[in-house]
Amino acid sequence: MNIPNFISLLRIILVPVIVIFLIQNQYARALIVFAIAGLTDALDGALARMLNKQTELGAFLDPLADKILLSTSFISLSIFGLIPGWLTVIVISRDLIILIGIMTLSMMSVPYEIKPVFVSKITTALQISTVLLALLLKTFNFDVVKCYEMVRILSWLTASFTILSGLVYIFKGVNFLNQTSDK
Fold this sequence. Notes:
Layout: H1 3-23, H2 27-50, H3 56-79, H4 85-107, H5 118-140, H6 144-181
Helix pairs in contact: 1-2, 1-3, 2-3, 2-5, 3-4, 3-5, 4-6, 5-6
C-alpha cells in the first residue's frame, strides 16, 4: 500500500463521516470533510505521478473513491433538497452506464484500459463544485433567490458535462467492442 493508494482509501473512509454530519444537520462539518475529500482527489493522482507510484490498484481505487464520494453526496444532498433530484439521476445513471460497460467488456474478455478522458476530469471538478456550493450555501444561509440561480446554473453545467463524458465513455466502449469483433 503506497501513499497515493492510502489517500484514495481515506477518501472512501470519509464518505460515511460526511453522511453522518448531513444526517445530524452539521453542514459546516460536512462541508469541511467533503472539501478535504475533494482535495484528496487531486492529491492522490499528483503524488502517484510525482513519486512514480502509479499502480493497477491505484488506477482502480481512485475512480472508485470518486464514484463512492460523489454518488453518496449527490444522493444525500438531493434527499435533503439541496441538489436537484434530476441532477442526481443523471450523475448516478452515467456512473451505472460506465460500470455496466466495464462489466460487459470484462465478461466478453475484451481488453480495455481504464483511463480518464479530459472531459471526465472537468465533470468530476464540476460535480465536486456542485456539492461544495450546495453545502456552502446551506452552511452560511445565503440569500435563497440569488443562490438558487447559482445552483441552477451550476447544475445545468454539471449535467451537460456529465452527459457529455458519459457519451465519450460509451463511444470508447463501443470502439473497444468493434476492435475485438474486427479481429
